[in-house]
Design a protein that fits this description.
This protein is an all-alpha fold and 53 residues long. It has one domain (2-52). It has helices at 2-9, 13-26, 30-52. The chain is elongated, with a radius of gyration of 11 Å.
Amino acid sequence: MASVLEAKHGLHAAEVADFFSAVHYRNGDEERSSAWADVAERVRERQRDRLLA
């Protein structure tokens, strides 16, 4: 999913995943919220890795 978000939203991919995480959290779906938070973290890790490469 991180790759898909990066392809569609570029540098904003982590923020998009954070948005989905917040929406699911607000709707009481902690499992999906957590999954999207994990995607956001993975996107940020990939961005860091690219900067360090």
